Amino acid sequence: TAERDALMQKSAELLKARNAVLVAHYYVDGDLQDLALATGGCVSDSLEMARFGRDHEAQTLVVAGVRFMGESAKILSPEKTVLMPDLEATCSLDLGCPIDEFSAFCDAHPDRKVVVYANTSAAVKARADWMVTSSCALAIVNHLKDKGEKILWAPDRHLGKYIQQQTGADMLMWQGACIVHDEFKGLELDLLRKQYPGARILVHPESPTSVVQQADVVGSTSQLLKAVIDGAEGETFIVATDNGIMHRMRQLAPGKTLIEAPTAGNSATCKSCAHCPWMAMNALQGVVDCLAKGTGEVFVDAEIGRKAAGCITRMLNFVK
Ligand code: 13P
Ligand code: SF4
User: Fold this and answer.
1) How remote is the C-alpha of 188 from its chain's centroid?
2) May I ask which residue range the UniProt record assigns to the signal sequence (predicted)?
3) For residue 320, what pLDDT is reported?
4) 111 C-alpha to center of ligand 2: Å?
5) d(CA 140, CA 125)
6) How high does pLDDT run on average in the chain?
7) Where are the alpha helices (DSSP H) in the chain?
8) Domains observed in the chain
């Protein structure tokens, strides 16, 4: 529409005028993803978003995603201005792991290395030894296991269980979940697979075990996207992750057939069940507002940020 085009144009102008760069996650609105790519920003998974924001020369980062992504950007670059289109965009994993309870959990198990998922608050990261994302959790837990470490894992129980099964590591787990991925259903997926016998199943590891068990590829959003790009021409994929990723998958793999994995209500009644309500809060108008008015600035307490930087940097150094 004309309104959308005007907002795209205005956002691009403001990004340029402010010497700012847009760092977007695959789950946000397709217009924001297109804007990020058209203006020299990035669209990626949470690991790459953190690295891109840290390494980019722009002094202002606009992070289109959820709160923990903005916080990670600020923690890694405290001297930069980090803005978000909507500061209220959070994550059920972050909400489900409040620092006081988490701290008490850690205190009760001082013999364990504390490994937290990126989807946590700055305060939780400040209490951790390692941060991981879904793209590197396996490698990092394997590394810790090889060193004989016992692990305290938080907050995603499905990702934790998958990593535990793959590595055999001794992991004590927080019982959090992603409200989006938790909705994928193993039984319905099994039925859908029978309709598409040749389809490859791509699953984000925040999904329940019954879904992960049926996967041909388990991985982060970037890793699932890569699996589609690398697939054979005309191949069919059933995708169990937030359907925001379909935008980029269709762009990069136009010849492939992409089917959303089933959630409890999706078929006829709810086509877009698998979409994060917090990611959906990101909009072009929010980009314009934060750049024009300075709204949505992310602040992290300096002491918490300094401590949290330790576990994020440890991860970035490990994966490089
Ligand atoms: P990725 O790191 O795989 O992009 O996942 C982030 C996220 O929030 C998934 O729900
Ligand atoms: Fe959090 Fe799930 Fe939304 Fe990702 S999709 S931001 S894990 S609630």
Assistant:
1) 25
2) none
3) 86
4) 30
5) 16
6) 96
7) 2-17, 30-38, 46-55, 67-76, 92-95, 99-107, 122-126, 137-146, 157-167, 186-195, 209-212, 221-230, 246-252, 284-293, 302-319
8) 2-89+279-299 (3.40.50.10800), 93-177 (3.40.50.10800), 181-260 (3.40.50.10800)
Ligand 1 shell residues, CB under 6 Å: 45-47, 119, 133-134, 178, 206, 220-221
Burial bucket for residue 203 (CB in 10 Å: 0-12, 13-18, 19+): buried
Instruction: Take atom 5 of ligand 2 and give the residue whose Cα is closest.
Output: 276
Beta carbons within 8 Å of 187's beta carbon, 6+ residues apart: 210
pLDDT tens per residue across span 42-62: 999 999 999 999 999 999 999
pTM, entire model: 0.96
Read off the pLDDT of residues 201-231 as tens digits, 9 standing for 90 and up: 999 999 999 999 999 999 999 999 999 999 9
Of ligand 2's atoms, which has the minimum distance to the CA of residue 92?
A: 8
Q: What is the dihedral of CA 130, 134, 140, 144, to 10 degrees?
A: 70
- CA of 172 from ligand 1 middle (Å) equals 22
DSSP-assigned beta bridge partners for residue 115: 130, 153
Q: How far is the CA of 6 from the centre of ligand 1 (A)?
A: 30
pLDDT tier at 272 (50, 70, 90 boundaries)? very low
Closest ligand 1 atom, CA of 181? 10
